[in-house]
Amino acid sequence: MNETNVSNVILERLADVLSGLTPEARKAATYVLENPRDVGVSTVREIAKAARVKPNTVVRMARQVGFEGYDDFREPFRDAIRQGAADFPDRARWLQSIRKSGGLGGLYADMVQGCLRNIEDSFANISEDSLKEAAETIWAAQRVFVLGVGVMNANARNFTYLASTGMTDFHAIPQLGSTAIDDLARADGQDVLIAMTCRPYRTEVIEAVRIARDQGVSIIGISDSPASPIVRVAQHSFVVAADTPQFFPSSVSTIALLETLLSFVIALASDEIVERVESFHRRRHQLGLYQGVQE
């Protein structure tokens, strides 16, 4: 097992015991879950200061997941590269400085490497069984609501568009001129909400997930940390890597996950979905929406 996978196992263990920790230890654990790349390059005092706890609290947290102390806990993270820690404006200025120095070749390499690493890290921790269970929940639902705001709204609409070629009652929310909470007003236990948000977590998404849960809606949460508020309350949760040299979180892994999840839904669905997709595209051909190859 490579070092990245070992550190991911530790993070999973930490997420599992999170609710049972003392309030102070929970603060330390949450900081680690939110900033795993900091662990390999930080002392126990630095982590404690960042988490606003005492150093012995960090040590107790490490022991809670089976390590003798912080040094043992840190070892699997030691070679991780700290990435994505700067604020958005600082990272935007950094990009500008690269452009002015003629260093776009390095940026290009970093972007490609980041995209590949994000996909590898994400799918290394997503099992076939978890995708199958989420896909079964989607196929059995009466309605599927797909929630994302900001850049995640585009991801939600893309997923909904693809799904709607073969399935009905898929809704990207918030709809134009509405709010996610209003769009979920009549959702109930027969429905599913797929919710997405990455750090910094959007308040309206967290609140919509909370209300949907109260209404009995099944939640599929997609985020970039096991400590994410929507991941912790979801029946089906997926943690994606969103690191990037850019100033915004990467959507590459989220899109790849959504496409894979949709492929599982189609694979599990009844034969009628194939007929629907064929009918959808046949109609487009008949209406001239596709341009044929010119001779």
TrEMBL record:
Q: Which GO terms describe its biological process?
A: carbohydrate derivative metabolic process
Q: Which PROSITE patterns match?
A: HTH_RPIR (PS51071), SIS (PS51464)
Q: Which domain of life is it from?
A: Bacteria
> Does the record's keyword annotation contain Lipid metabolism?
no
The molecular function terms of the Gene Ontology recorded here are: carbohydrate derivative binding; DNA binding; DNA-binding transcription factor activity
Q: Which UniProt keywords apply?
A: DNA-binding, Transcription, Transcription regulation
Q: What is this protein called?
A: Transcriptional regulator, RpiR family
